[in-house]
Fold:
Amino acid sequence: MYFVVAGGGEVGFHLSQALLEAGHEVMILESDRRRAQYIQEQLGSVVMTASADEGRSQMDAGCQRADAVIAVTGDDAKNLVICQLAKLHCRAERVIARVNNPKNEIVFKALGIDETISSTRVLMGVIEQELPTGGFFPLMPLTGSHLELIEAEVAPNTPAAGRKVGELGLAAFGALIGGIVRQGKILHAHGDTPLEVGDRVIVFSPTAAEADVRRALFG
Amino acid sequence: MNIVIIGCGRVGAFLAGLLDEDGHAVTVVDVERSSFDHLPQSFKGNTLLGSGTDLDTLRQAGVENAEALFALTQGDNRNLMAAQIAKEIFGVRRVIAKVNDPIRARLYRTQGLTTISRTTILGTLLHALLAEDPEVGKVLMEKTLAHEERLSADAPVAAKAD
Structure:
């Protein structure tokens, strides 16, 4: 597949390297000449010194025939415009934006960019996975809605431990437990199903209610 | 009218002064506190420290009850993002973004967002002045000079450097 990666910072560099190693074709747009030169020395002729937020550079890089344009600069406003330009100007098939401020996921969706990746969120997920108190990881946003999928592990001495599903009050903020994973098996989550420590629950939740869900499960 | 201005550089501060004088309720937002020094001393509106692309900052600036928003920071992309948030998320009726890149300005205009490119406006004006085209430049220059006259009258000492 062919990918245009907008922004040759750390994220763009390593993403491109991984895509190349996986056998894909990549073109990186990087506006800083010295950085572009470094990338060329490391990865070969896969970089153009150009501003990714300009329509002409995007056309030169072949955004119109790319399988996806991925905007990964450290500037959310720039990533938004890169993705919008790729869609409007180049009719790119698929655009993916990195958002640095997790609040902007909602903004990007409202402005027509459905696929976003929040590095802050991913990091939070990784860190929480390491915490002994059980994990709470937003897995992914559901495309085309303001909903997301969350996985949480029921920890000892939390409101969720020993409680019945219906008693958690998730419905109040529009969230619901879609299933429970207990010892590798999937259980239906009925209102009267008691939760045990170590259960992993899969929650469908409005993105805006993520904090409420966290409080309901962990206190 | 409740009006929000994002970016208190020279243009933002100048416009804030004009609108304030006209009696509008103006709130100016900027990430840099020292930018508010650009405002005329007579300015009676509000200033808010924060980013114009941040939902909470915009809410705090009163965007939900604003009739107009101008996005006038130095960054085209930031202006486009702030203006789109105001228009699409908060439903502000009149939104104008300064987008100096003419190509981006035009593209977003075709999508229904009002954009103004300083590059093409100033270039067109200069072109008309040289050609002594009376239609284009005359009224604008007259108004501009009058504003400048008043500004210098307001400033007690010599105008501040940047």
Q: What stands out?
A: The helical segments of chain B are 10-21, 55-60, 76-89, 102-110, 118-130, 134-154.
